[in-house]
Design a protein that fits this description.
This protein has 167 residues and is an alpha+beta fold. The protein has a single domain, classed as CheA-289, Domain 4 (OB fold (Dihydrolipoamide Acetyltransferase, E2P)). The chain has two helices and eleven strands. The strands form two sheets. It has a six-stranded mixed β-sheet. Strands 3-6-7-5-4 form a five-stranded mixed β-sheet. β10 and β11 form a beta hairpin. The longest helix is centred in the last third of the chain and has 23 residues. The chain is globular and about 45 Å long.
């Protein structure tokens, strides 16, 4: 009955970048995050859904930018001092996500991760992959592919290709 464990052995750790939208804390797998940049001007693209703020030129790469507040049906706000764009790679394509404030990278043991609660058919939570207990808060871990659905994700991912082809 020896319970000794070497430090870190036996406890798998997951790493997430956490960020705020209003007062809620969300997280994405750190391996999906390419970089975090300060808010910058985007170029609007006509006939795109309201959550697509436009595209930006990041070191010669055209990257579509999504306003996560709009995507989550939250009120739009003007960028503040801590507003940031998190560049995330989804299925091999880079997409920028505007968030209110980037918090930190957290390590979460498997035992502190649980599936999202069931709210019934009337509440859509398919975009929440897991819930992570972290200190005195709960972090909603996002499933970015499920958040968009195939059609929306394809639209966002193809924006940079379409604009590059026209140039």
């Amino acid at each position: 009955m020896e319970e000794k464990k070497a430090k870190g052995v036996g406890l798998a750790t997951n790493r997430f970048l956490t960020f705020y939208l209003e007062e809620e804390v969300y997280g994405v797998n750190i391996f999906d995050v390419k970089e975090i940049i300060a808010m910058m001007k985007t170029t609007p693209v006509p006939k795109t859904p309201p959550f697509i703020k436009g595209v930006m030129n990041l070191r010669g790469n055209i990257i579509p930018v999504v306003d996560m507040r709009v995507k989550f049906d939250m009120p739009e706000v003007e960028p503040q001092m801590y507003t940031a764009i998190v560049i995330i790679t989804i299925e091999g394509k880079n997409i920028g996500f505007i968030v209110d404030k980037v918090e930190e990278v957290v390590n979460v043991e498997n035992e502190n991760i649980s599936p999202p609660p069931e709210f019934g058919a009337s509440v859509d939570t398919k975009f929440i992959k897991n819930m992570a207990k972290q200190k005195n808060k709960v972090v909603m871990i996002l499933d970015l592919v499920a958040l968009f659905g195939e059609e929306e994700l394809s639209l966002v991912q193809n924006l940079n290709k379409t604009l590059s082809d026209k140039g």
